[in-house]
Amino acid sequence: MGDDRYSNIRISDAERDLAMTALGEHLSTGRLELGEYEVRCTRVIAARTRADLEALFTDLPEPHPDLSAAVLPGKKVAKSKKKNQPATTPLVTTMETIGGLAVLLGIPGAILATIFAGMWWLFIPVVVVFIVTTSIADSAKKSTSKG
């Protein structure tokens, strides 16, 4: 996936966010099951180098996080602009973040609430928040790519 010279370069929070977003897309398309998604998201949070993140996507098709900014000092890598790729707006970023947090925090919270208080119905708002935020983000992406 990546150049071995860059595999030990440390990554930023922005690159971790890109990885989370890409994993969310794989979850929403059914390439990842919820349990595996949670494991990979935990590994994204713990990732320190490009190699740590790249290892999470070796068995997945695009999208992958853009790690071209994590390069050796003094070297610049030209970013390739993909045609027909919608622009990311603050709305899209916010909705994707809220949807990701709903899954990452809501599912374990609902499990605990079910175990300790019998509040099984908490799964419903978690799923609804995820679906609504994903729909809003997708609509915003489509509207920015049209105009």
What's this model, at a glance?
With 147 residues, the protein is mainly α. It has helices spanning 13-28, 34-46, 50-54, 90-117, 123-146.
Write the layout of secondary structure elements.
Blueprint (H helix, E strand, L loop, with lengths): L12 H16 L5 H13 L3 H5 L35 H28 L5 H24 L1
Task: Describe the protein in words.
This protein has 147 residues and is mostly helical. It has helices at 13-28, 34-46, 50-54, 90-117, 123-146. α1 (13-28) packs antiparallel against α2 (34-46) and α4 (90-117) runs antiparallel to α5. The two termini are 33 Å apart. The model has no long low-confidence stretch (mean pLDDT 83).
Q: What global shape is seen?
A: globular
Which percent bin holds the helix content?
A: 55-70%
Query: For the report, how would you describe the main beta sheet?
Result: none
Which regions contain 5 or more consecutive residues with pLDDT less than 50? none
Q: Order of SSEs, N→C?
A: HHHHH
Tell me the fraction of residues in β-strands, as a range. under 5%
- Radius of gyration over alpha carbons? 17 Å
* Number of E-type strands: 0
Task: Please tally the helical runs, counting DSSP H or I stretches of 4 or more residues.
Answer: 5
What's the end-to-end separation, in Å? 33 Å
In round numbers, the mean pLDDT is 83
SS content category: mainly alpha
